[in-house]
Design brief:
Helix content is 34%, strand content 20%. It is of the alpha/beta class. It has one domain: Rossmann fold (3-Layer(aba) Sandwich), CATH 3.40.50.300. The strands form 2 sheets. A 6-stranded parallel beta sheet has the order 3-2-6-7-1-8, sandwiched between helices. A two-stranded parallel sheet has the order 4-5. Strand 2 (35-40), helix 2 (48-51) and strand 3 (59-64) form a beta-alpha-beta unit. Helix 4 runs parallel beside helix 6 (139-148).
């Protein structure tokens, strides 16, 4: 870990942010690096959870999420809300579910350990931007976390809606822009592609 580690942000409304982070993880593992892949806002229901844990002893994969989604009141159309009503907890802006706030706080502590403990060369904080947008964590907490990073650790933060402060602070920012997506035609998430 003699080299300087940079801060990457993968954001935007297009598909591929987590996928890009997984690709970088594979590349780092192939180079003999140790990786912490910490997923906020997700439980172990995605296809990558079936393969990644066995791919290398140098990979630690952890999830910080519940088996339900959360949605800010007013952020979805009535049609979208009808789709999610039985799969999500809707909360008023500024008042996210306490159990999620507590869970994300534990995830932030785990992220700090990974960034400062000397064990990992690459730390991926998948969907941390989403936790930020839901007010489950503050920008000040994320900024402090970035500042605590050991100099040689590479840090990747993913998720839609990266705030301008994070974009300014990062060394590399990639925005996935949706040009066209079959989701607009009613195609649900497909196993092995989106899920």
């Amino acid at each position: 870990m003699a080299d300087k580690g940079y801060v990457h942000v993968y954001t935007g409304n297009g598909k591929g942010k987590t996928t890009a982070a997984i690709g970088l993880t594979i590349r780092a593992l192939g180079a003999g690096k140790k990786v912490m892949f910490l997923q906020f806002m997700k439980s172990k229901v995605y296809s990558e959870h079936k393969i990644l844990p066995g791919i290398s002893p140098n990979l630690t994969l952890e999830t910080i999420g519940k088996p339900f989604f959360i949605v800010k009141e007013g952020s979805l159309t009535e049609e979208e809300l009808a789709k999610w009503r039985h799969k999500a907890v809707v909360f008023p802006p500024g008042h996210p579910p306490r159990e999620y706030v507590d869970l994300i706080a534990k995830g932030m502590n785990r992220a700090r350990e990974a960034l400062t403990g000397g064990e990992f060369d690459l730390v991926v904080l998948d969907e941390l931007n989403v936790a930020l947008s839901f007010d489950l964590v503050t920008w000040e907490q994320v900024s402090e976390l970035i500042d605590s990073k050991a100099p040689g650790v590479e840090l990747v933060i993913t998720g839609r809606g990266a705030p301008s402060e994070l974009i300014e602070k990062a060394d590399l920012v990639t925005e996935m822009r949706e040009v066209k997506h079959y989701y607009a035609q009613g195609v649900e998430a497909r196993k092995g592609i989106e899920n």
